Amino acid sequence: MTTHVDSPPRSAVARVASVAADSDLLPLSLRSVLGYYAETGVFDYDSLTLKRYVDRTVEELLTAAYRAVERSIADVVDEPPSAIEFAYDTKLTLPAELTLGRVYQRAVDETPAAFNPVTLSVRTPLVEYVRSPFDDEYERRRLRMYREQYAAVLDEVERAEAMTELVVEALLDGDMRDAINDDEYDDFEVEGPTGDLSTPEIAVVAQETLAARVEAQFETFPDEVRAAYERAVTVSERHQDDDPRFREIAERAATDADAAATDIREEYKHAPFDDDGPLFAPEHGDLPYFTTQYGRVGVIYAGMIEMYRAVGIDIDAGFEESIILAIVGAQIWLDDVDDFPEDLADRQLTPATAEYWLADSDGEAYDRIVDIAVRYLDAAKAAATASDSTLTGIAVEYILRSGAPESLPGSRE
Q: Could you tell me the superkingdom of the organism this chain comes from (predicted)?
């Protein structure tokens, strides 16, 4: 149950929470919970329990995918699957985790407190334990009753879990394809006797295994699911088609920033949306880089939401907005900031490199990057709070506190 506390004592508690959230002595996850509460006055204890359920489910899905890859590698090198350990370092699954958490939360809200529709368990009233004799069948009867009474809720949970499996593996498949195309293999982790099989060859085996699993899963869903995915991929690839032009702009900016400034602003920072832009774009049309970053990372997660909707799972627009804004904010605040030296050297146009080419000084560029990233994350947090998605709000707080902008030139740190 989400609790909004606005009474006078809340101010004192919020101050304490704010101080604790800034303490390096506490885990980042706890600091994020406290920081979100300090800012919004929202504390949802049940959401933390739901997060454990989500983490468990997604971990099981990833394990199943990796075991399949291990079997494929083992077949190639003629070793038993138990001898191979495979993993893939990714942060791509967070939006899928939050979406599954959204469905779990709704299921919990729509069923009695004594019944957990996620774990399929019942809580027996204490009085039943002191009755003589205790009825061993009591809990089983109640569980059958709840499962029959809330069959529609349980069906939605099952559909959401099945869709999350497809989404997670499709995201991994796509990310692995990009890594292979870019000759980047650091995220592929393999242990065991792989013989003469090189890391690039292992990466291909892993990607092809996941691609086959994704294709098989698509066959079990309505055609609308594949269509939603393919629409998102088409828009994403259209953005990739613009990459040569962005690289040409970056090359000019590296040697003469003033000469490239107009193109950076008009084609990258303030580019207009095509007709297939997100429905919530008009409300955030003033966010710099939104069009290009939507095509770069946001559209894939918009497609993910549409895949859930295609199997009858209602995902409200406010929640979708929070996810898209959070993922774009995270891309800038975490990846683009962390990769800034490499992107600058490689003439890669990102919001971070763009601001350093546009600004008159490193200090000005630093301030702009921080302001832009925080605007995205604040907007994501506001959308999460408005849609009553505490898990997403806490996740955004976690992203915000995970950033390391002090690594940028001109840092005020």
A: Archaea
Cβ proximity of 288 and 355 under 8 Å: no
The SS3 assignment for 117 reads coil
The SS3 call for residue 25 is coil
- Give the dihedral sign, CA 305/326/394/1: negative
Instruction: Tell the burial category of 225 from Cβ atoms under 10 Å away from its Cβ (0-12, 13-18, 19+).
Output: buried
Q: Which is nearest to 295 in space by CA: 277, 269, 283?
A: 277
Q: Which of 335, 375, 311, 8 is nearest to 160 (CA)?
A: 311
* Pairing between β-strand 3-4 and β-strand 115-116 as defined by DSSP bridges: unpaired
In angstroms, rounded to a whole number, what is the distance separating the alpha carbons of residues 33 and 17?
Answer: 9
CA gap 397, 404 in Å, rounded: 14
Extract the tokens encoding 361: 């000084």
How many C-beta atoms lie closer than 10 Å to residue 158's C-beta?
Answer: 10
Q: Which amino acid is at 335?
A: D
* Cβ(329)–Cβ(380) below 8 Å: yes
> 314 near 159, Cβ under 8 Å?
no
Are 263 and 249 in contact by the 8 Å Cβ rule? The answer is: yes
- 261: three-class secondary structure by DSSP: helix
Distance CA 306, CA 259 (A): 41
Task: Assess contact for 320 and 305: CB atoms under 8 A.
Answer: yes
Distance CA(374)–CA(182), nearest Å, equals 30
With beta carbons less than 8 A apart as the criterion, state whether 363 and 410 touch.
yes
First to last CA, the chain: 39
Amino acid letter, residue 120: L
pLDDT per residue of the chain (413 residues) written in tens, 0 to 9 = 444 444 444 454 444 445 444 545 566 666 666 666 666 666 666 777 888 999 999 999 999 999 999 999 999 999 999 999 999 988 889 999 999 999 999 999 999 988 999 999 887 655 455 555 556 677 788 889 999 999 999 999 999 999 999 999 999 999 999 999 989 999 999 999 998 899 999 999 999 999 999 999 999 999 999 999 999 998 888 888 899 999 999 999 999 999 999 999 999 999 987 765 555 554 666 899 999 999 899 999 999 999 999 999 999 999 999 999 999 999 999 999 999 999 999 999 999 999 999 999 999 999 999 999 999 999 999 999 999 888 899 999 989 999 999 999 999 76
Q: Is 21 helix (H, G, I), strand (E, B) or coil?
A: helix
